[in-house]
Structure formats: C-alpha cells, structure tokens
Amino acid sequence: MSNLEQTLSIIKPDAVERDLSDQIKNEFKKNGFNILKEKKVKLDKVDAEKFYQVHQSKPFFNDLCEYLSSGTIIVMILEKENAVLENRRIMGATDPQKAEDGTLRKKFGISIDKNSVHGSDSIENAKIEIDFFFKD
Ligand code: UDP
Ligand code: MG
Question: Which residues are near ligand 1 (CB < 6 Å)?
C-alpha cells in the first residue's frame, strides 16, 4: 500500500558554508526523494529557539540555537514513501562518529553539533516543521 509522506530537511550552516548543498540534494534525489519545495533562509536566534523548542531544557540548547542561526540554511520539503524514516536512515546517527558508512552525517558531518543536516523525527513533527518554514 502506498505510504507517501513529506518530511522537512535542513542543510545546516556548516554544510552550506562548505558548499555541500548540491551534493546533499543529489543524495536525496538518488535515494528517490522528490524535493517539492526549497528555500534559503537565515534564521535569527528567536526563530531558532522556536524551531528547536522541544530541546529547550537540554544543556546544548543555547549552543544549538546560536549555531542554527549562525549562517544560511537550506530548508526543503522532501517527499517519498515513508519519507520520515527514510530521511532519518539516510542522515545517519546524530553524532557523525557513530553514523553508519554511507550516511550523510558520516560523509559530511564535522561533530555532533555541526552534523550538516536536520530531519523531522515523526510524521507529526514533520507537519509542524513544514508549517514553520512554508506556511504563508
Ligand atoms: N545536539 C548537540 N549535542 C547533543 C545532542 C544534540 O549539539 O548532545 C544537536 C545536534 O546538532 C542535533 C540537534 O542538537 O542534530 C538536535 O538533537 P536531536 O537529539 O533531535 O538529534 P537529531 O534529531 O538531529 O538527530
Ligand atoms: Mg531531532
């Protein structure tokens, strides 16, 4: 049965700065994702805090929001069967050192904070995150 889903992907500042966005987009296309919408965004700190509010009690919250608002990012709506899980699989573990070979974070990530990509972790959060960037 068809299970076409949409998820939100972000190419984070470390990857945009290193000119990796075309390579990352190609990885998504190669893996059967359709990029329905994309745009370049520069968040301010308050926007980043809103986006990452689920992490507000974590010790890394402030650094995370500083980082996400530190440079240009590329946000994309990706569509594929089981897109949420498929994107998480292709991204790899949060810590690039623990990510499996061939994953985006293994290939491109620098550290647990500069790990090159974000992906929604559930269908519900995908809807919230897509609205956050594309509702207008
Ligand atoms: N993060 C961090 N330190 C940690 C855990 C997470 O800097 O100990 C950052 C990391 O960039 C991660 C983001 O916070 O991508 C959100 O954390 P989450 O646990 O949601 O990981 P993800 O869903 O991105 O794999
Ligand atoms: Mg997460």
Answer: 55, 60, 64, 94, 112-113, 115, 118, 121
